[in-house]
Amino acid sequence: MVNLDTRHTALIIVDLQQDFFDYDIWPDSLIPKTRATLVKNTNELVGHCRNRQIPIIWFKQAFKSDLSDAFLHMRRSGKKYTISGTDGCELLTELDVFPNDHILLKSRFSAFFHTDLEQLLERLNAIYLILAGITTAWCIRSTAVDAYQRDYEIVIAKECIRAFTEREHRDSVRAMDGYVATFLSNSEISECISTQSG
C-alpha cells in the first residue's frame, strides 16, 4: 500500500465544471453521462481527505471571451467553453466545495502550467498528491507527468477520473499506472491516510 503522510499530502481536483458536462458542447463525450457517479465518488474522496485535514485544491479552466488566451485548437475552431464569468466555467453545484478550500485557475492542460500551484504546494509542505477530475487523457495525465517531473509522489483516484472516450481513459491509465502514478480506489486511499498520524 502507498504511504501517504497526511501532514504532507494535498488533494487536487481538476476541471469538474459545468461546460464539460454539457451534452450540447460534447455530444460524443462519455463525460456528461458520468456526472452523478463522478460527483458522488469525488465528494466521498473529499470527505475522506477533510477528515484527515488534507488540503483540498479545486482547479477551474478559464479563458477570455475572445479566446486570446485559449488553446490553439479553440482559437482555430472558434469553439467556446469554460469562459471566465459564465455559468459554464463554474464547478458543478453538487460538489462539496468549502469556503476554506483553495480554488485556482488554469488555461492549459497541466495544473502546473503558469499557475500558482507549485508555490501553494510548497506552502502546504506537500510531498504526496492525490489527483482527481477530468480528463484522464489530457489534464489529469499532463498534471501527473508535470508533478512526477517535480518529484512528487502521485496517487490518482481511479473512481474519480474520466475521459472523453473509454479508449482514451484505458490507454492513459495503462501508460501511467505504476510509472508516474499509482491508481487507487477511494477505499484504498482512505485506508492509506487513516493509518498515518496526521
Tell me what the structure shows.
The chain has 198 residues and is an alpha/beta fold. The protein has one domain: Isochorismatase-like (Rossmann fold), CATH 3.40.50. It has six helices and six strands; from the N terminus they run E-H-E-H-E-H-E-H-E-H-E-H. It has helices spanning 35-51, 72-77, 117-123, 136-149, 166-176, 186-194; strands at 9-14, 56-61, 102-106, 128-134, 153-162, 182-184. A six-stranded parallel beta sheet has the order 3-2-1-4-5-6, sandwiched between helices. Strand 1, helix 1 (35-51) and strand 2 (56-61) form a beta-alpha-beta unit. Helix 1 (35-51) packs parallel to helix 6 (186-194) and helix 4 (136-149) packs parallel to helix 5. The radius of gyration is 16 Å and the shape is globular.
Please write out the topology.
Layout: E1 9-14, H1 35-51, E2 56-61, H2 72-77, E3 102-106, H3 117-123, E4 128-134, H4 136-149, E5 153-162, H5 166-176, E6 182-184, H6 186-194
Parallel strand pairs: 1-2, 1-4, 2-3, 4-5, 5-6
Helix pairs in contact: 1-6, 4-5
